[in-house]
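Case study 2.
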Amino acid sequence: MGKLAPFEPVLSGKALAFMLSVNKRQQRRISDLLFSLADYPYQPGDYESKDDAGRSIQHLRIADLMISYWPDDSCRELWITEIDHV
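Prediction:
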């Protein structure tokens, strides 16, 4: 049996708007964090909520950021729904 493809981070419009609002150095830092998170897409966040579709959204605080995400196993994507400063 072959090795599964890694998860890819996918940004929502809201998360993308946040990324575009910060400087290049911060963008690189956040990008690195998102790819690291995609390596472990099922790690629990600091707390969980449900979206309108009933999906479990994990909310993880990393340094001065709150990253909200959910893994889509069928297409090996980690959906980043929101990124914000805390």
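The mean pLDDT is 95.
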